[in-house]
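My convention is simple: the sequence line spells out the residues, with the fold written below as integer tokens. I include a record here:
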Amino acid sequence: MKRGRQEAAARSSRVSGGVPVGVLSGAGERGTRARVARLILEHGPITAAALGERLGLTPAAVRRHLDALLAEGLIEPRDVRPIGRRGRGRPAKLFVITDAGRSAFEHAYDDLAGSALRFIAERVGEEAVAEFARSQVAGLVERLAPTMRQVPVEQRVRVLAQALSADGYAASASQAKSGGEQLCQHHCPVAHVAAEFPQLCEAETEAFARLLGTPVQRLATIAHGDGVCTTHVSPHALAVRRKHAPPGESPDDA
């Protein structure tokens, strides 16, 4: 188990979309560069002069960090549209974060989360990781449970998909060919961490079952290399039959 975690950690620290994850982490020169990138992420578009003023850096230092971030494809320049008469000299440029830059930040957070969970697993144990995972999805259950109690059962999967999409999971709901419904999540913000700690996926699946009031089964996950996280949701009528079936009797025979 420990070797598997080490391999997963190595994979997550390599390259995402051609961007080295380590470029936004570390101390010293790289740490300052990460501060420049974060400021552009949070306050961009922003000029080099504004960056230097906020961070207390000389124009030469700012330019050095900007050139490095540009070379890595983490930021890109945009020309400032002049208002009124243009003065002498070159027009100032604004800098914005790129999609690759956002991805690098996401993976830097993934690395921190993975390190924290590895620490918990080694110092406290696997059950502590599972408890942490359940605590993370408890907010979703608490937030949606009142709504689910008021929504007709045939609309619950769709409502859950909408809530997940609002949280960044790009979810959708559809009828399953085999009966029941299918909940798909086309994006997973914690996929790289979940690849190492499946307890995150397991806790989420348990939360879905509680919210929907019917058994669910995970068929595929992005964390395990599938293109989409797919969850089969059993028909609510089947859940009711199972609940009221006499002991030892199959609900299909009821």
